[in-house]
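Structure ticket #2291
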Amino acid sequence: MSASDPDPACVAVTGATGYIGGRLVPRLLEAGYRVRCLVRFPQKLQDRAWAADPRVEIVKADLSDPVSLSEKLAGCSAAYYLVHSMLSAGKDYAARDRQLASAFSSAARSSGVSRIVYLGGLGEMGPDLSEHLSSRREVEEALRSSGVPVTVLRAAMIIGSGSASFEILRYLVERLPVMITPKWVMTPCQPIAVRNVVNYLVGCLSAPETTGGTFDVGGPDVLCYRDLMQIMAEELGLRRRLIIPVPVLTPRLSSYWIHLVTPLSHQIARPLAEGLRNPVVCRDHRIRELIPQELLGVREAIRAALTSIATRHVETSWSMAGPVPGDPDWAGGKVFRDSREMEIRAPAWAAFRAVCRVGGGRGRYPADWLWRIRGFIDRLAGGPGLRRGRRDPDEVSYGEALDFWRVVGLERNRRLALRAEMKLPGEALLEFRIEPRGEAHSLLRQTALFQPRGLLGLLYWYAVLPFHQIVFRGMLHRIRREAIELAAREYGPATALPRP
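Resolution: structure written out below.
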């Protein structure tokens, strides 16, 4: 094999920062492959346990540039295409996805990649196929445009902790004992567990018969969404839900309701809601013979997902995907600043861990009711609100979502920067910096920055300013208490200060 020939053991993965890609990479490593992750933001992978594996390359790549992409694919025998522009391109996601898929196909051919593996969506072609599912088919064709063989796996709902479909289902069932729903609750579907999807994706590489083929992938159960909701209620230990289908609710109205009740944004909710009207059932089962595995039923898959959430073993979440703009550029224009600091009788690592608990399952700290009101208003305005929560109650990673914040700066034991993604008349950043002061002391600096946009932005800043003393000062006191408790558990109670 010459230096320019593809290495059969080397595969490329796009979308490694996303829900499926983040679970696929470690499974590929377990199967003995070397993995090259092509990503827009390499920082988003710095805290993944598998990122330090010597068989992993993390390469910054622009998927819209086939020339540079070809160089970065060189030496790979196969490439996984797991990219979706729904979060980053808004209404134009379908056109953007076609463009990126065409560029990737061209680059794959130029670099000598022998096959592409793509995860698409189930659904019979026809005039009633939703825009989302139609876009998935267009991507298939764009990937085939250069002549490189493409293996397509088409899946319906993927059930797993942190998946968008699973989160919609869980939140609707948890929050609504009575549901007036569209007719799509009677649409048949064939869900599949996320572990089974990933096993099929890995198995394709060792099953040459899958090269160039299109395969439906699904679990053993075919049922309607109403039955799926009732199973979820049973697994959550809830009473049977009263579900009333009516013909007047359109997919658009359904997406608004999903946005208000679940953590998903309207950008994701609407395409998914529109796709629910299409039956998504496997028409062939050839993949089961080519890549045999134990398929989890719907109840088993839901139970496994809920167990992962309860035990804090959520590998990836839908909210981890999408662009990360980074720290705002504050050049030009007025920037308001609210800075506070506090001495903490605890080492820097304990202060940092306490800072990382901000938001999500542990609450917004003091004046929680103020945060809840702000989150509710944000949901009504089309923002993420507080329901996105977080993947883990203690740990954070670069690019991760924490309620209506996004981690845009992360230096272990030194700095955490959160950029606001709520609907605002300006740009907002909340930053924590920790300075060690000896082995058992540290200084915590908290800074809220806001760059207003127009008169409305100025009015907003002065309207919320009176609440900062309650919210941000209270947050500092809570962080200090938690840091002292963390240090005391590590070194003993002699480290801790008396509670204020």
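Closing remark: The chain has three domains: 1-148, 156-194+217-315, 336-495.
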